[in-house]
Design brief:
Strands 1, 3, 4, 6, 8 and 10 form a six-stranded antiparallel beta sheet that branches. The protein has a four-stranded antiparallel beta sheet with strand order 2-12-7-9. Helix content is 7%, strand content 33%. The protein is built from two helices and twelve strands; from the N terminus they run αβββββββαβββββ. The chain is mainly beta.
Length: 193
């Protein structure tokens, strides 16, 4: 069941859902609008010509900080990592979905490739996978509405919320856009066939 504006508002007021900062003007009929933070990670050219997922890829990006009212140009086909301005906390009986704003989708701006799912127990700022699929550059601004988050009720509370030690949750508590930690899948404890 997707939560309505009334239910979202009640859960925010009661502290069960945390969105900080939160402005009631961002409450939509079944979601809350989120905003783009100042820091983005831009991919540098890789001299190897490929990404080895067994290696830490964090060194392939460099941070760029947007100034107030100065646009960041996202060029056609370009992919960067951004972050929500808001710190989000999801209780252990809800799951959330991150989606783009339709107005931005209509100009070719995508805000996630595959990471639109926010697990129960999540705490932190959400990393955005920003891609321009249009044929012309798109301007991004610090603080602009970039997406929306909706909430779905689970059948029960989860036994192991995101961040539980046995899960090895990689991004719990992140403050900024965070590069992939896929290389951790290739540690000595896991066996692939």
């Amino acid at each position: 069941m997707v939560l309505s504006d009334r239910s979202i508002s009640e859960l925010i007021s009661g502290g069960r859902i945390v969105i900080d900062p939160y402005d009631p003007v961002d409450l939509q009929p079944a979601s809350v609008d989120l905003h783009l933070d100042r820091r983005v990670l831009v991919f540098r050219n890789n001299s190897a010509g490929y990404l080895d997922l067994r290696e830490d890829t964090g060194g392939l990006t460099e941070p760029v900080y947007m100034e107030d009212d100065v646009p960041f140009m996202l060029h056609p086909g370009e992919f960067i990592l951004g972050s929500t301005l808001e710190h989000i906390e999801i209780p252990d009986d809800l799951v959330a979905r991150l989606e783009g704003k339709s107005s931005l989708g209509r100009i070719g701006l995508l805000i996630h490739s595959t990471a639109g799912y926010v697990d129960p127990g999540w705490r932190g700022h959400l990393t955005l996978e920003l891609t321009n699929v249009s044929r012309i550059p798109v301007t991004l601004y610090y603080g602009m509405r970039i997406g929306q988050i909706s909430f779905l009720q689970l059948s029960t509370r989860v036994d192991r919320p995101y961040g539980s030690p046995e899960l090895g949750s990689r991004y719990q508590g992140q403050r900024d856009a965070t590069a992939s930690r896929a290389h951790l899948d290739f540690d000595a404890r896991r066996h692939y066939r």
